[in-house]
């Protein structure tokens, strides 16, 4: 299983499309066996779900995300967790332990940093 956390270095980004990087955790039997940080290649409509799918990501975690991106991830059978906050390693660990649930935080406008998290 691969978990991607939209990040601003070691903090969860509040909008996945505008994040600085994706911290990608490879998990085997509830243990993180590898972590890599991948720079965000750019925010283009529909691009990031395909990009992360090609990297083998099964779960994407972010503070907020637009409805279109959520639908694209869902169409690729990638689980979406929104509403996350804090340190990315802690958040990945909480997900693995089953302690992290999506709040359904959806960004309602494009170019919407102020709208994320509502």
TrEMBL record:
> Which domain of life does this protein belong to?
Bacteria
What Pfam families does the record tag this protein with? Nitro_FeMo-Co
Every copy of the Dinitrogenase iron-molybdenum cofactor biosynthesis domain together lies at 9-97
The family database entries (InterPro entries) matched by this protein are listed as: Di-Nase_FeMo-co_biosynth (IPR003731), DiNase_FeMo-co_biosyn_sf (IPR036105), MTH1175_dom (IPR033913)
The name on file for this protein is: NifB/NifX family molybdenum-iron cluster-binding protein
**Which species is listed as the source?**
Anaeromonas frigoriresistens
């Amino acid at each position: 299983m691969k978990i991607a956390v939209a990040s601003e270095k070691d903090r969860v980004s509040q909008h996945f499309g505008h994040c600085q990087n994706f911290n990608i955790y490879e998990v085997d039997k509830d243990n993180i066996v590898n972590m890599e940080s991948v720079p965000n290649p750019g925010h283009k409509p529909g691009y990031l779900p395909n990009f992360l799918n090609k990297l083998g990501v099964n779960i994407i975690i972010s503070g907020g995300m637009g409805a279109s991106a959520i639908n694209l991830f869902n169409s690729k059978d990638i689980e979406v967790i929104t509403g996350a906050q804090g340190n990315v390693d802690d958040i990945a660990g909480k997900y693995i332990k089953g302690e992290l649930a999506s709040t359904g935080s959806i960004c309602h406008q494009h170019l919407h940093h102020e709208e994320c998290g509502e």
